[in-house]
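pasting for ref. prot 1 ->
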Amino acid sequence: MADWVMCPDCGELLYGKRLVQNLHVCRECGSHHRLTAAERIAQLFDDGQATVIDDRVHSVDVLEFVDSKPYPERLRTARQQTGLDEGVLVVHGTIDGNPVIAAVMDFRFLGGSLGGAVGELITRAAEVALDLRTPLLIVSASGGARMQEGVISLMQMAKTSAALGQLDEAGILTISLVTDPTYGGVAASYATLCDVILAEPGARLGFAGPRVIEQTIRQVLPPGFQTAESLLEHGLIDAVKPRQELRRTLARLLSIGSGADTEPSGDTGVSGDAGVSGDAGASGKAADAGVVERDHLRLPEADMWQTVQLARELGRPTTQQLFATAFEEFEELHGDRAGGDCPAIAGGLARLDGMPAVVIGHQKGATIAERAARNYGMATPGGYRKAARLMRTAAKLKLPVITLIDTPGAYPGIEAEEQGQAIAIAENIRLMASLPVPVVCAITGEGGSGGALALAVANEVLICSNGTYSVISPEGCASILWHDSGKAPAAAAALRVGARELLRLGVVDGVITEPDGGSQADPHDAASRVRTALSSSLTRLRRIDAETLVAERRARFRSFGISTVEGRTDDKEFAGHA
């Protein structure tokens, strides 16, 4: 490192040693300077050390390609200038004690271009991760496919994508760290196929480069186009992380994503003959005694309209607040990977009493301004698709799913309908019914219609004592049936939206009692009660094998509704009326 370095973004002259101490991030403008593969590994891995596991792969001049120079000459120059055999290093090591296989690209080597050797090394990294059942980290930096290898370079996109597909089938966590720049065949294969996609601030990612786009469409691109911040806004990556936070973030993701408990809560072994009944069920339910009421007769009757008002109060703990207080190590993940990141749905990886889980919930907002920004917890199709993506990740990694419900309903806007709101909700309901992992749901405030059910198809459904759950809002029901929204209190009573009636009907399995004055009176105590209730349910359900979990969940929802006409035996006469 030179004594003084000029920042390529702000032009400030930086003292070399201080720049290294700041992880090659400009203190003046925050620009994240490019790192070599060796520097990246030293920053991320424990003690700055990792073992290279395969460095014997070399590029081949299969086309005898010549531009201004023969391809072999370009390769020799790149090797001399970088000290690398190819544009990626594959290593095995640990990040804060968590084992990981990493493939780290180096842009200095022919612009990090994807050729046969790079594709082979990425594929071998995935195969080693598969053999060792160890998470895979890919750090990308590339200008795209290596043109000197022609169509062989193109084939590497399929080769590496297939390798990551095998890790999906095996349930092994994959993480992508996008650095600047990442384009072309790398962006359209392994850099964007991982379970979690992180990016450094300002990192650019796209299939076509900006010059190609501008030449093709003959338009000036908007500021920030293809940057990490824009990608996050459009739901294409999970998070933008400054370099100082990367090691800690990766350690958390690796730890939770591996499925290992940090503080096991009771016996969590899986057995094929266990169920929610019997000794296991009794011991689990005993753990939440005093917090969860399972007998509706022990609950006081309440005015339904007053309950509706309490469920909507501004001071009640929000989903994000519960993620921060009732759970540990919450790492939020963003986006549906299809162009949207609905602010009304939040989710990510977390621990509950040491148990790793995927957590998802409606986020209404803690203030009036935030409620407006969060669309009052009314999710768009992108929100439900984000939730579905996280649930599929949970199924892959064999992590339980915990959902928190607080929504007046799905967003009923023009764009939502154009983007397939009904389809997104239907697909979530079907997906949740078949998830091969424990699913626990808590309705913490409003449970409005299909917008709530899209996150509530669970093995166990709980509700806070001042929560509500209904097919429609009381105002909506009153407007339709009474033609008068002022009849909402009567509609609330008729719909029986409160916890006591929901427990009587079996729609919920237990009621989480709230502090005196409601959850809004003591949010900390309320969060503690939610934590106890969810932990008890999850501890019990984790003893059940996947096949039984799915069967019992489907049976739970199969049981709702009238299936025969009481008192009649003439099946033919009443066929079709079930």
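and prot 2 ->
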Amino acid sequence: MAASYDNSSISSLKGADRVRKRPGVIFGSDGLEGAQHAYFEILSNSIDEAKDGYGKKITTVLYEDGSLSVRDNGRGIPLEYNEAEKRYNWELVYCELYAGGKYDINSENYEYSLGLNGLGACATQYASEYFDVEVIRDGYKYNLHFEKGENKGGLVKEKLRSLKENTGTFQKWKPDLEVFTDTNITYEYLLDVNKKQAMVNRGITFCIINQSSDTKTEYCYENGILDYIEEISNGKNISSPYYIEGSGTGKDREDLKEYKVKAEIAFAFNNDVPVLQYYHNSSYLEHGGAPDKAVRSAFVAVFDKVLKQRGKYNKGETKINFVDIEDSLIVIVNSLSTMTSYENQTKKAINNKFIQDFLTDLLKERLEIWFIENTADSNRVIDQILANKRSREASEKQRVALKRKLVGKSDSWDRVKKFVDCKSKDTSIRELFIVEGDSALGSVKMGRDAEFQAVMPVRGKILNCLKSDVSKIVSSDIIMDLIKVLGCGIEIPLKTSKKGVLSFDINNLRWNKIICCTDADVDGFQIRTLILTMIYRLCPTLIDEGYVYIAETPLYEMRYKTRSDEETFFAFDEKEKNRIMKGKDPSRFFIQRSKGLGENTPEFMWLTTMDPKTRRLVRVTSEDAQKMQEYFELYLGNNVAARKSYIEENGHLYTDDLDLD
């Protein structure tokens, strides 16, 4: 019976429990992302000091035990008694949510602040195993120590002997595993966050130290986002970087107060590394919001206008969209405002209407000037954008045509030539054996369990799908028949879809296992590799989800006769044959080398290759997707020189070593 629910059932969290029991509410996650965001909250406060001109260096240390520290040389957090609030400031800062010095939008302190909500320092302290503070200001050194949200020892104040010591704040803490499910913040994450902050806070040095490896990295961009664009474009721009800045005052709604906005924007066009990044008050806006909408609207409007003015559209041609521009665009927007409406505490998007309108108008105005001032650059860019557009439209037509070809009638796969289906319609048990040639089809067909095992033959060496374009692939009857039998469609990267999915739906897959079953010789291995390459190129999700297998077929059948008995062994390669024979009388062995699947008896095929109890299946995995892609490209791609070099250097590693001693 359920517990009673009455007036006494309502309760409220107090003190540290407000964060420790519900960290996701404050940090957006109770996992690693939450622990990372807690770090960013502390870093943000130091950034706000430096942005206001107090200190030019911020140092982060990652310690061996997973704890972190942030040190700045700003003014130092005020920690003493606050007459207005009738409490100590250290209590307000570290023990009170929604307390801080950044709420007054008309104040000169932290005019364009990253940390506006008064949550970060307190919430991070509450969520830490321990949290230590050292502040130097007004000729004193102040220390605080917290454990699991509770202060230990109060505020310790010590007068400095010398007033020459730099002011600033040092905070060290260890994220608590009782609060977060994962606290393993990596050095790579710290490098990424600090590099982004260095880029949008010009002239401030961000130092990151990894105590475990004794590694130190510093970032400082004297020219801010312009330097960053030069860095990531790697000299491959089709237009020079262009810088825009502006400021304004406005309101999100007529009945609301006005606030200040200023922004800097840099862009360039580059076919190698398209990048869209948005920052507001230094916070990286992963989901964009208002700045992203402004960029999309302004670029499409101005480009469409100029294309019409310069007569670049063909007769009857549709207008460009942002995808065509985005494919060749690097743009960094760094906006600031005295009032910001973030979507939530994690600050991954903003939704201020005035900021969106301001950025849209600023971009439109300056883009039109860019077109006038940069005729040569803009003509190159226009040609590229139109090429992107026409390529996208051609791909879309191809996608539609291919979808029609793949979908067809619902039962079209039943009529694929020489495909032998199984009886069961239960996709949780159905297995598809892909075999080479008609002879293998016969032995596998007769040796299988027809209830759940189906067979699809391929004729010879199929097309190398890594070297072939889409039009050639879809014109191959063998490949299209295979795709129809699989039932799930294909995935090919196209500009019409960010996910690169073309007519693919894993829910339409008709098989629990897709098994490549080829001869145990060089030709068989090559055919198997080409089949796997086809799946890797056209249906990589099947590999990712673990549906693809290799059936190991024996190279030798070995019968060992004794006076009273006869044993049968199957060796799947030369080394295994030698291991089986080791220590036995060689003269008692009768060894039959497999001449191909088509010459095996049905009983032999069932016992060695198809019986789930005795067969050997190897699942094809993509645990290291990057490495898998590199090897596929090396072995079967277009870089012949690299492949030749690899074979010359490593070919001996793939030669069977018959000496087992």
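The chain has three domains: 17-219, 225-386, 396-553+620-654.
The longest helix spans residues 375-407.
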